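User: Second chain of the day. Same drill as before.
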Amino acid sequence: MTITTATPDDASLIADAIIAAIGPELTDHLAGDHNTPQDVHDLFARLAARTDSQYSYLNSRVARNDEGNPIGVCVSYDGADLKRLRRPFFAEANKTFGWGMTPEEIEAVPGETEPDEFYLDTLMTLPEYRGQGIGEALIRDAKLKADAAGKPLGLLCDIDNDRARRLYDRVGFIDRGQRPFAGHDMNHLQLC
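Assistant: Same format as last time:
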């Protein structure tokens, strides 16, 4: 297995990972009454192909097997950059979903991370490769980026996602309490 920085060609894979991370309920909520889950996927793929979004291929690392096929993906970035990096998301969402949020409303949206941590936004191992240590390898790779930034690696984990929580506990994440995200409380974890 090798882990390398993603390329624009990985945009659809990155979007798949984001959709898997947010789950069908939030995907449907984003789509609303006038869009489809595919529209949501396409929005995230557009963001992943950009250089200036939190979901950018530049913030994404892809694990590949010996044949060069993708087997996992991780999106992470410096929490100090969140407000700047998420502006493209809101601009795309305003356009795609008709949200009509003003710049002031966008700036007022609470962040899922803080400036003093490096944020692991999205982690996905393709289903047929789960249980082989790929997620753990991607976390350790993200931790190297966090260490280079001099910050702990932080993430939010759904309270009901026991499988992910077992992985994070096994790697050594520490519970830092709960933080609201997308309308419900999530476990805030950090790896120092």
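The chain has six helices and seven strands.

User: Great, on to the next one.
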